[in-house]
Amino acid sequence: MTAMRDRYLKEIGIPVWRLRASSAELSTVMTEPSGAAVGAAAAPRVIEPLPREVAPATEPWAELVAAVKGCTRCALHKSRTQTVFGVGRRDAHLFVIGEAPGADEDRQGEPFVGRAGQLLNAMLRAIGLPRSEVFIANILKCRPPGNRDPQPEEAASCTPYLSQQIALVQPRVLLAVGRISAQWLLQTDTPIGRLRGRVQSYGERNTPLVVTYHPAYLLRSPLDKAKAWTDLCLVKELLSRSP
Ligand code: SF4
To answer: Disulfide-capable partner of 129 in 52, 119, 124, 233 (CB 3.0 to 4.6 Å)?
Structure first.
């Protein structure tokens, strides 16, 4: 298990340090950007997926998929190759929310593909959650031209679809990935650096929401991967709690 965890941490670019312990079994510690040791208690523990049956394709889902596929509620429908509905378990415990499809997503019809998607997958695996075990969607279901930021009116037009997805999945935890996703979901202009690192809540159900950096940003700013790791540890801890 330790070897698997170390491999995943190495994959997402976080160094793994081992203490020269006197005991035969070495402990693993992570360091925060400040250099402060988090300690072995914060080391990742793989969460075994609970035995759950994959939810069947029910009518509300089919209606929602069809509504998104044919949507013309905002001008983005004119420039899209296809809508990007979202993927994953329809009874997932963790719901990951990004901002909008990029070029790869627009072409493939799936959120978080390409290099950023691969990093997200590695980050999820690092807390014991393969991509297939979570639900992943964006606020916008259509790509903004040139990958520009979503306009508020576009996000307002599209958010009802995301709200319905969340209502159907009923996740235990939401993970807002990136500044735009976090600020829109929390309806704030607070910088992401002050939104991450603690548990927020979303919606009428007060679903716990954790904010972290977008993997595309982490590819450009690898020093912040350690902060993203602490965010994922927070997700892991929330998921470990009894429902
Ligand atoms: S972005 Fe959302 S609201 Fe706009 S056309 Fe696409 S699906 Fe409809």
So the answer is: 124
pLDDT given for residue 65 in this prediction: 97
Looking at residue 22, what is its pLDDT? 40
Over the range 37-54, which residues count as b (16 or more CB within 10 Å of their CB) and which as e? eeeeebbbeebeeeeeee
- CA–CA separation, 72 and 83 (whole Å): 11
Confidence of residue 2 (pLDDT cuts 50, 70, 90): low
Ligand 1 residue neighbourhood (C-beta within 6 Å): 68, 71-74, 76-77, 83, 140-142, 154, 157-158
Probe ligand 1: pick from 65, 138, 149, 158, max atoms within 8 Å of CB?
Answer: 158
Q: pLDDT for 108-130, tens place per residue?
A: 999 999 999 999 999 999 999 99
Name beta bridge partners: 177.
Answer: 212
How many CA within 13 A on the CB side of residue 230? 19
Cα angle, residue 141 at apex, residues 118 and 71 outer, rounded to 5°: 155
| Closest approach atom of ligand 1 to CA 157 | 3
Calculate the CA 171 to chain-centre distance.
Answer: 12
Cα(180)–Cα(132) distance, rounded to whole angstroms? 24
Give the predicted TM-score (pTM) of the model: 0.81
